[in-house]
Amino acid sequence: MLKEKIVLFCKSYDKDLYRAKRLADSVDRFNIDNISFYMSVPQKDLGLFRDEFQDNKCILLTDEEIIDRTIEVFGEIPGYFSPSIFQQLIKLEFWRMGKARNYAWIDSDSYFIKDFKISDFMYDSETPYTILEEFDINEKKKKWSNAPKSVRERRFVDRVNHIEKFKTLFDKESKEYNFGVSTPIIWSSEVLKHLYEHYLVPEGKTIFRLLSDYPCETFLYGYYLFHSKCIQIYPKKHMFKAFDYLDEFISSQMIGENEYTIAKDYFGICIQSNWALIKEKKKISERLRNRKQEILYIISKYIR
């Protein structure tokens, strides 16, 4: 059986069930080329997802199926792996399943809002686009202008430090790029195989150690691609509008943006669960009180 040219892939779990369901529904609605959509969940959650997704075309896999392939190559997963790094590992190792030559992985907190087709992900019949952007501090200043100054400064420092850490991993002369600000992120299985055969094996490293030392799957892939040039690089801007922070979402609402207006420039929306997810059961008054100053600052920008 020939590998598919490209598939969609999502790593999810029980706490993201309804976000993942929203994504699956959007894929069914807007997927005009019927691109296969795979979703990986823990074995313990498989029954839950099967019940909820019985009307969707989504093909369910288990994390264990993917990780078993990794264990065959590198041995058992170290005990120091955090849940977030484990999720990144699943995404990086999906290529070993042999399902497709390329895959666009999408997080559960994202969903499509208009029709999409294979050519939106592929430059030609063999080569996928690479989702990236050159880091532009002035663009970020504009995007984050409605956040308090202290918040903006912390974001600048964090982003610059993050980029500096990765850009010298494979090449000292790399430019400053942003990879993976929002999903979908398009990856070539050929690049990931090349990373294994031409970097990890010669260096005597495991994917576990590499990911532990450099915990960001999008930057690992992106900077290795620029280093190896094992496929042609055809840059593409981010396909989804990402709300990475609360102030970005509030600003969008204040100017009246909606799915219709966003669809003019983007294929979907990513509402980062880092800030949108309620991690503790708290009264809404308490949650709002914790973000009061930030919310009031943002709103004040629009009512002067």
Q: What radius of gyration results from the CA coordinates?
A: 20 Å
Return residue spans where pLDDT drops below 50 for at least 5 consecutive residues.
Answer: none
Largest sheet: 5 strands, mixed
By CATH, the topology is: Spore Coat Polysaccharide Biosynthesis Protein SpsA, Chain A
Quickly give the CATH architecture: Alpha-Beta Complex
Count of strand segments? 12
CATH superfamily: Spore Coat Polysaccharide Biosynthesis Protein SpsA, Chain A
Structural class: alpha/beta
How many DSSP helices? 14
Overall mean confidence score, pLDDT: 85
Overall body shape? globular
CATH top level?
Alpha Beta
Count of distinct structural domains? 1
How much of the sequence lies in strands comes to 5-15%
Helix content: 40-55%
Order of helices and strands: EHEHEHHEEEEHHEEHHHEEHHEHHH
The order of strands across the largest sheet is 3-2-1-4-9
- What is the first-to-last residue Cα distance? 63 Å
Structure description:
- This protein has 304 residues and is α/β, with parallel strands linked by helices.
- The protein has one domain: Alpha-Beta Complex (Spore Coat Polysaccharide Biosynthesis Protein SpsA, Chain A).
- Helix content is 46%, strand content 13%.
- The chain has helices spanning 17-30, 46-52, 63-74, 83-93, 137-143, 149-170, 189-203, 207-213, 217-228, 246-254, 259-262, 273-276, 284-290, 292-300; strands at 7-11, 37-41, 59-62, 102-105, 110-112, 130-131, 133-134, 177-178, 185-188, 235-236, 240-243, 268-271.
- The protein is globular.
- The model has no long low-confidence stretch (mean pLDDT 85).
